[in-house]
Design a protein that fits this description.
By secondary structure, the chain is of the alpha+beta class. It contains five helices and two strands. It is globular.
Length: about 140
Amino acid sequence: MLIAGAVFGYFVLFEGFKPDWLRVPVFAVYSSYIKTTVLGMSQTNLADELAMLFILIGLGIFVFSKEKEEIQGYNDLRLKAMFLAVAIDLVLMIFVVLFIFGTGFIQALLLQMFLLPLVYLLVFRILRLMNNPIERKH
């Protein structure tokens, strides 16, 4: 799902791919395009939402999956990785708030949606390699 979402997201974001069959009415808690809608129906193209949904579900599968060979102590590493990922994410978001403005700020917020699980996965892999002498030999 992650790969499909990333490929689809690339085409939506960089190639402007928004097929007409994905333009549908949706229930919106809040929508503000040409007109503002609160708790009502709104017309939208679901291409970007589908791409983000696939990426988030794919990342969630990676984040919450057990390792093929689960070793005692991985849960402690997961907790450390999550703590470090949240800390890194907060530092990056403080940087964004202080130094990025306008539409770049909105784009940074959109990227931040994927950043926490990505940083967590990276930090967990690094911690796993540092704490497992068997894996360091390979």
